[in-house]
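Is it possible to get an amino acid sequence alongside its tokenized fold?
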Amino acid sequence: MAGIRIKGLSKSYAANAEMAAVSGLDLDIKDNQFVTLLGPSGCGKTTTLRLIAGYLTPDKGTIEVGSRVISSAEGVAPPDKRGMGMVFQNYAVWPHKTVYENVVFGLKLRKIEKAECRRRVEATLDLVNLNGLESRFPGELSGGQQQRVALARSLVVEPEILLLDEPLSNLDAKLRERMRVELKQLQRRTGITFVYVTHDQAEALALSDQIAVMHGGRLQQYGTPDEVYRRPTNKTVADFMGIVNFVPAAAKRLASGALIANVAGVDIDVSVPAGVADGDPLDVAVRPENVDLARSSDGRPGLTGTVTEETFLGNIVEYWVELASGPAIRVQAHPTERFNVGETVHAQIRAGECSAFPRTEPTKQ
């Protein structure tokens, strides 16, 4: 198997280099990992995947697989020489061919002997839970089964790396959840390096060993799902990775010399980034699940507010709490902990689960 090393990768579709789709990307994807390129539309994730696949030539930088340089501004190894498979968003299976004919196609192009073709196709169909469906046509399959056909067609040629471009986006919510589990199990069974593109944060968190969060063509953070969710490196990552409240605060220097955040007169013992001085404005990123609500403070430091909205979501109840000194914040609580609209509550922030960032622009409300 093989890892991928990307160095200084840039690609622009316009004459203006400032409009680059990908700019100065450095990324080290280890062998046998499930890595997700995550970000909003236009962030450069699909362009990066197409550069890895060999469909585009970079303007600058290199892509290496093992010890081979497979892409640079000077030239690109063609897709069929890169040792990679590709699974597309729209499946791209041939409707007039059976499951077997779809899957065996790549082996026939490689002139693999007929008996070996059958052995490998049967083994691959078993791997993706499609055994017994060899003679069916795509129109006779469910969306999840068609996606498995596309996976099998890529896996049967035994690639070192599998590239997946939002392959679950056309499936319904329940089927997407089931396919997430199957994809992760498939990656573990095969030991193939998976590079996966999505804009769905939950999908990235559920599937990945490492997540590369992209925005504006640049890499914002590269880390484990836990790291990018709980320890975002900047406001862009914090804002994109799920629901977050940005609570206005000010840096406060303690007698010990340590800097913490002060929110409406309440000290929040959250780590303050380097370069911030006493009194500087901050935004504290607070996830809804990291606020505890109570009807009284019981002597604990916290913020007072009023419940303005309540939404029952089954496994959680979501509240909007208008703080007495500050913005409205979104809070998620267990359904057994119920509060009424109009009720005064005490909100205690779990500082250890929060991040603080210098305020460089108005806080979103």
Notes: Helices lie at 45-53, 99-109, 114-127, 143-155, 173-190, 201-207, 225-230, 235-240. Residues 4-238 form a domain with the Rossmann fold fold (CATH 3.40.50.300). The chain has a mean pLDDT of 91.
